[in-house]
Amino acid sequence: MPSSKRNLGEHALMKRRGSKLGVKRFFQEQLSGEEALTFTTAKRLFDLAEELLIVQPWQALADTELILVKDPQLGGFCFCSVLGQLGEIFAVHAYRGMQSYCLFKKMAAGVPIDIGEFFGEQHSLTLEFLTPGKLSPADRDLALALGHPLKKGTMVPQFRAGRPGYRPWYPTEGEGKVLALCVESVLAFCEYAADNPEFDSWQYEDVYPKVVWTSKKFFRVENDLVRETAPPPDPAPLDQDRLEKLCRGDYPLRGIIEVDQFYSGAPVGEKNQRKACLRVVMSVDAETRFLYTVEALEPVRSLGEVLVEGVLQTIERGRFVPAEVRVKQERYRLLLLALKERFGFELRVSENLPALDFAKEHLQRTLGDPGKI
């Protein structure tokens, strides 16, 4: 069980060493072009981590007992989960936004999820306690600057931020501030729960305690019902010149293609770069299993752009317009409606895309995809 053995006053004196050494920001090499974590925010996170070790919220909270707080950076909520009851991982993990909350609900319900799907949909912030040997050099530099001895057997906080389509990475200044708010909200709820044992949380499905900060020092706790909603469609801007060229081709209307997109769990990126998850769009002939399109795209591309690219590349390479396009989700169908109207093909939702799933499974094996969580 993690514990804090060091005197708080001594720890505060040791932390001042970082400012004396002139340390102003952390993770600058890993966050090129972004605002790196400041000494002030890093110190706040370290102070909160020390308080977590004292309070040990994992003694009372399960990882499914979420605590809500308003996300000041993105809007919506951060859904804060405390990990540690099983005695293996000790952390505060915050799911940011409705898409990440829907992902949490799938995992809590035991739905099998590919590692690529998890990293593709998650938007998260994490404070996790690790032993010194598991830290990266940049994490060690931060811990030393803030006075941690990094002795064998001690627990050290590590801070990470996950963005959709990317592996967790070092937090920026803005992400660090939101993570600090999430941890502070967990501690605030623990304080409130200790003083108000009659407060009834998590009695009903999708009802969670919400911490509302009225000032820097004062807060209140109230229950809030979260209505799980699908993310709104993000239609792609269409290249009209490209569409006109394809329409002038006067291609025949034939065949059925299956279209899908997915993330691979295999990370891609240089040593000090944020590691992306390879994002793939595929289109396959439903009857012959002929693979018309397999294209790797950047994670920052919208879902609508990715699906549109899959259909347009099929038309360009196959020199035909599919009579029917099949996708797995209604949301995908909505994103392709503009192309359906332009080219006149049928557009259907089908839970099973056997030809595409066969090609996808083969590609994932080739890429060394880790598989399901």
Give a written overview of the molecule.
The longest helix is centred in the middle third of the chain and has 23 residues, at 173-195. The strands form four sheets. The chain has a five-stranded antiparallel beta sheet with strand order 3-4-5-6-7. Strand 10 and strand 11 (276-285) form a beta hairpin. It is elongated and about 70 Å long. The chain folds into two domains: 8-225, no CATH class; 240-367, 2-Layer Sandwich (Nucleotidyltransferase, domain 5), CATH 3.30.420. It contains eleven helices and 14 strands. It has 373 residues and is an alpha+beta fold. The protein starts with 7 loop residues before the first helix and ends in a 6-residue tail after the last helix. Residues 1-20 have low confidence and may be disordered.
The helix content is: 25-40%
- Regions with pLDDT < 50 over 5+ consecutive residues? 1-20
Total E-strand runs: 14
Strand arrangement across the biggest beta sheet: 3-4-5-6-7
SSE string, helices as H and strands as E: HEEHEEEHHEHEHEEHEEEHEHHEH
What is the alpha-carbon Rg in Å? 24 Å
Strand content: 15-25%
The total number of structural domains is 2
Number of helices: 11
Largest sheet: 5 strands, antiparallel
Distance from N terminus to C terminus (CA atoms, Å) equals 25 Å
Overall geometry comes to: elongated
Provide mean pLDDT, rounded. 90
Structural class: alpha+beta
Question: How do the strands and helices of this protein lay out in sequence?
Answer:
Blueprint: H1 8-20, E1 25-26, E2 37-38, H2 39-55, E3 67-70, E4 77-83, E5 91-96, H3 97-108, H4 115-121, E6 124-130, H5 137-145, E7 156-162, H6 173-195, E8 207-213, E9 219-225, H7 240-248, E10 256-268, E11 276-285, E12 291-297, H8 303-318, E13 324-327, H9 330-335, H10 337-343, E14 346-349, H11 354-367
Parallel strand pairs: 10-13, 13-14
Antiparallel strand pairs: 1-2, 3-4, 4-5, 5-6, 6-7, 8-9, 10-11, 11-12
